[in-house]
Amino acid sequence: MNQPDWDQLLTGYLDNEITQQDRQRVEHQMAVDSDYRAQHDELAALQTEISKLDYTHSKTTQWSEHAPDTTTRSSRSLGWVVCILSYLLLISYGIYEFATSDDENVLVKIAGLGILLGTGLLLFSVMRQRRIESKTDRYKDVQI
Fold this sequence. Notes:
With 144 residues, the protein is mainly alpha-helical. Helix content is 78%, strand content 0%. It has helices at residues 3-14, 20-32, 34-52, 60-66, 70-100, 106-135. α2 (20-32) packs across α3 (34-52). The two termini are 48 Å apart.
């Protein structure tokens, strides 16, 4: 057997997840190979130390301390509002220029209007669906 197979058997031995036949093979290997026995003892000691660790659940206030502060959240929200308003202003100006331009063909103007209208309808339907789902969202009150 190669080394990875013996390592897998050893971890299975420590976790009591192998057959009786494989347990006997591991015990025989530990008896004849001192390095393998040392590896077993090291892993067993590590397993014992890990089982002694005490995991305590953090309180909600401790989790809130790690969340971004109010100033960061407010500035991020303000940044989004300014960015969205700027995009809307730029798009509105582009639509106005496109609509009043005499250089464009009527068919191109109708196609552009269709694209804008379709995109607007898709955006509206997504926002409407998100609003409907937010009312029944089981996780909306979960705080991180």
